[in-house]
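Subject: design request, 89 residues
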């Protein structure tokens, strides 16, 4: 999985539309292999980002959880620790 795409479900504070769109953009960049589309592909690129963001928002809204929401700061600290361990080798 792309390391730039973060878990968005069951977080405190809840996910925002901007975070969903950013994840969709990262996904489209990853599968297209392009950080910035050519002029010829720009419309298709942007349409894909919007469709994926919309589908992701519906998906996240439909999910349920029995566990307490995860604290964003604690999860970020865990991710930094894993990253430090990974790159220390």
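Subject: RE: design request

Done. Sequence follows.
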């Amino acid at each position: 999985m792309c390391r730039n795409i973060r878990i968005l479900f069951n977080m405190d504070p809840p996910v925002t539309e901007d975070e969903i769109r950013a994840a969709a953009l990262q996904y489209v960049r990853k599968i297209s292999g392009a950080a910035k589309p050519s002029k010829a592909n720009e419309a298709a690129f942007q349409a894909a980002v919007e469709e994926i963001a919309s589908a992701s928002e519906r998906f996240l809204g439909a999910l349920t959880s029995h566990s307490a929401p995860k604290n964003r700061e604690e999860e970020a600290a865990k991710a930094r620790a894993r990253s430090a361990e990974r790159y220390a080798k």
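The first strand starts at residue 11 and ends at 12.
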